[in-house]
Design goal:
By secondary structure, the chain is of the alpha/beta class. The protein folds into five domains: 101 residues, 3-Layer(aba) Sandwich (GIY-YIG endonuclease), CATH 3.40.1440; 67 residues, no CATH class; 181 residues, P-loop containing nucleotide triphosphate hydrolases (Rossmann fold, 3-Layer(aba) Sandwich); 178 residues, P-loop containing nucleotide triphosphate hydrolases (Rossmann fold), CATH 3.40.50.300; 88 residues, Ribosomal protein S10 (Alpha-Beta Plaits, 2-Layer Sandwich). 31% of the residues lie in helices and 24% in strands. The chain contains 21 helices and 31 strands. The strands form seven sheets. Strands 12-13-11-14-15-10-16 form a seven-stranded parallel β-sheet, sandwiched between helices. A six-stranded mixed β-sheet has the order 5-2-1-4-3-6. The two termini are 49 Å apart.
């Protein structure tokens, strides 16, 4: 017997099967989809078995034997094997990279074979009473040993750690005490039962609509305003799926959302829930994966990579906040989790639910054309009103010397503090100051490796690059002219907290951004503490904008609404509308009315006006007209090619060469733009050029891109990245 094995090298030239003989001792145990150790040249590497054959095909190399099965419990089933081939074809990634993306960190092919299982060791007396009694008679002076024996005679399920000592070791060595290992999972669940809320009439209509087609392939766009109770609809649909003895997969966009939503899932469904996100330890990811493999978990909730969970008999896939860019993987394999979800829904012939208060334009366009089925929740649950939104003109505030916090926002925060209510403030920039420049000579601190200014972090007195990680201390004097004339420009979350502490000395303020959430469980601690009213004000970046639910939050303030509008990207209007609408939705979600204050230098901007009046559909029509004129998605498909090199001339030359190939081989209707320098031209001493392709129908495009991709597969001086439906430029 022989096996076709795809090996761990993520190179196009080696992205093929290699034939290996199955040793006699593995013939009955080896299965398709298993990980194996194999010899390759002078190395021992790992791979996946993708086929087993009885006869020897003709090959031009020596056929060697498989060395061992790595983990017989971990098997890529037929669905995941087919899914890997779909990802390879649709993203042009190496097939092995697609399969590696499906495993948690502890099980990836390049990891060592460390044992990530966790065990509790229990002790008990030997059941041979004569042996125990003889030992007691023969050791009357071993007081400590006799105490342990007596304790074990009167107690069961005793953890070894509670009695661990030299006396216990002697008893174990003499076989008077036996050890029993029991595998345990690291994550502790809150098994408090969550009371099922009665669905509103709107929620019931949406539920009934989808329930009637639970065993049919459909993609539903659930458009519901913030606070309309989309999660409660999800819960009821999952209940129906579980009744059919099927499983459910739920994706959420941000790790910061997992804290609250996971607790709700645990309380509703108890111990049949497994979770996946980047905040888990390697051991925890290993445990959660095994729960799914062993079919102990019927529901998986997680961020992007959870889409590959090996759930059997899948009954529904739900993607919450479907508009989020975090569902796009930017490293190889560059997949879109929503497209993967569509594939899995089709494989199982089940519904896919895409939920959002601000659906992406592409999703709403598909819903308008009946490609998706549109279901809506137009009102908040329990008749709660949407918050009142006020726009503050910052140009007038500057005249009052209010450079960061307007007088209206300060008054509103003070009112919340008096009323024992909470405030959320959004500022989508971390650090203290975004630019430090010298007012004497004009010197500006810039990253030596990237084409970007350094951000000042006051708490550590460091200047940092948020792209390559370069760090340096800030001096008191200008490095160029040696004068004490450094000027701090721009405001980040760290500086905002300082300003708030000056204005409100008694206020309890917490900051949530990537600087304050580096430690394990730091997200959960901040969110839990804020929910428990240990803080009055939460300051954060966009990670606080979606999905969080705090009953005492009655005020949301946006410090600078223009920061995302000014990004040179055709999606900047859409991202701004999404961000502002989502963060506004955190206010007034309970009995108390909410207020939103948006500070801007462009109070007459159409996008901000749409946010103020909660006019998603008017925004959709407005933005779609612009997209149609400029030939952008959803009217045209988009592909980005990024050409990178350590040498500027090489990157420029090859980018022009690729552009020429594209223009000569693609349809005349296909638009090729570039090459241009990327938004950030140099990152970590790598020069980046970008080529954009816009097309509607072009049968040649995949063939041409594959040929170009193969041209640069072994080129060590050039890196070529091809991204379908790019989110960032």
């Amino acid at each position: 017997m022989y096996a076709n094995v795809i090996i761990e090298y993520p190179l196009k030239t080696l992205d093929k099967y290699f034939l290996y003989k199955i040793p006699d001792d593995l013939v009955n145990s080896l299965k398709i989809g298993m990980q194996v150790k194999v010899p390759f040249g002078k190395q021992t590497i790992k791979g996946f078995v993708l086929n087993i054959v009885a006869n020897i095909p003709s090959v031009d190399y020596e056929i060697k034997e498989i060395i061992a099965i790595i983990n017989p419990e971990i098997i890529l089933n037929d669905e995941l094997i087919q899914l890997g081939k779909f990802i390879e074809e649709s993203t042009l990634c190496p097939l092995i990279s697609a399969y590696q993306a499906m495993l948690p960190a502890a099980l990836k092919l390049k990891k060592t074979t460390n044992n990530y299982h966790k065990y509790n060791t229990y002790i008990e007396l030997n059941t041979d009473k004569n042996l125990v009694n003889d030992y007691i008679k023969n050791n009357p002076r071993s007081i400590k040993q006799l105490e342990i024996i007596k304790y074990l005679q009167n107690n069961q399920n005793v953890l070894k750690s509670t009695l661990n000592c030299s006396a216990l070791k002697i008893l174990i060595n003499n076989k008077i005490v036996k050890e029993n290992k029991e595998e345990v999972y690291r994550l502790n669940k809150d098994n408090t039962t969550l009371i099922k809320n009665k669905l509103t009439s709107e929620q019931q209509d949406v539920f009934n609509n989808i329930k009637a087609n639970l065993n049919t392939l459909n993609t539903y766009l659930l458009y519901g305003v913030t606070g309309s109770g989309k999660t409660e609809v999800y819960f009821n649909l999952i209940d129906e799926v579980l009744k059919q003895n099927k499983t459910a997969l739920v994706l959420i966009p941000e790790i910061s959302l997992t804290t609250q939503i996971i607790n709700r899932f645990y309380k509703r469904f108890n111990n049949i829930v497994a979770i996946f996100h980047s905040g888990l330890s390697i051991g925890e990811k290993h445990d959660e994966y095994l729960k799914v493999v062993r079919e102990e978990a019927k529901i998986v909730v997680g961020t992007r990579s959870a889409i590959f969970s090996p759930l059997k008999n899948l009954g529904i896939v739900i993607i919450d906040e479907e508009h989020s860019s975090t569902y796009h993987q930017e490293n190889i394999p560059r997949y879109n989790a929503i497209e993967v979800a569509k594939w899995r829904a089709k494989f199982h012939n089940i519904p896919l639910i895409l939920g959002s208060a601000t659906p992406s334009l592409e999703s709403m366009a598909r819903a308008q054309k009946n490609v998706y089925k549109l279901v809506t929740l137009n009102n908040r649950a329990q008749d709660v009103e949407l918050p009142k939104c006020n726009i503050i003109d910052l140009t007038k505030e500057i005249e009052k010397n209010n450079l960061v916090l307007s007088s209206s926002l300060l008054e509103a925060i003070a009112k919340c503090l008096v009323n024992k209510e909470q405030t959320i403030l959004l500022l989508n920039r971390r650090g203290y100051s975004t630019v430090i420049t010298c007012s004497n000579c004009g010197f500006t601190y810039k990253c030596p490796n990237c084409d970007i200014t350094l951000t000042y972090h006051k708490s550590s007195n460091h200047l940092r690059c948020h792209y390559c990680g370069y760090t340096t201390f800030k001096s008191e004097k200008c490095p160029e002219c040696k004068e004490e004339s450094l000027t701090f420009l721009g405001t980040g979350t760290e500086k905002l907290v300082t300003l708030l502490q000056q204005e409100f000395p008694t206020a309890r303020i917490v900051r949530m951004d990537t600087d304050t959430t580096t430690k394990k469980d730091s997200y959960q601690k901040i969110i839990d503490d804020f929910a428990a009213f240990k803080y009055d004000i939460l300051v954060g970046t966009q990670m606080i904008s979606k999905g969080l639910d705090f009953p005492l939050v009655t005020l949301v303030g946006v410090i600078n609404a223009d920061s995302s509008l000014n990004i040179p990207d055709f999606r900047s209007n859409e991202r701004t509308f999404e961000l502002l609408t989502q963060v506004a939705g955190r206010a007034g979600r309970s009995e108390k009315k909410g207020e939103v204050i948006i500070q801007t230098f462009n109070p007459d901007n159409k996008i901000i006006d749409f946010v103020k009046n909660n006019e998603y559909l008017n925004f959709y029509k407005y933005e779609m007209a612009i997209r149609k004129t400029l030939k952008y998605p959803p009217y045209y498909f988009l592909i980005s090619l990024k050409v990178s090199s350590k040498e500027y001339d090489i990157a420029s030359k090859e980018a022009n060469q690729i552009t020429k190939i594209l223009k000569n081989n693609l349809s005349k209707e296909t638009i090729v733009l570039g090459p241009t320098t990327a938004n950030i031209f140099k990152i970590n001493n790598i020069y980046n050029f970008q080529i954009l392709i816009k097309y509607r129908f072009d049968n040649q495009i995949n063939k041409v891109l594959k040929e170009i991709d193969n041209m640069y597969a072994l080129n060590k001086k050039i890196s070529l990245s091809i991204l379908f439906d790019p989110i960032h430029f």
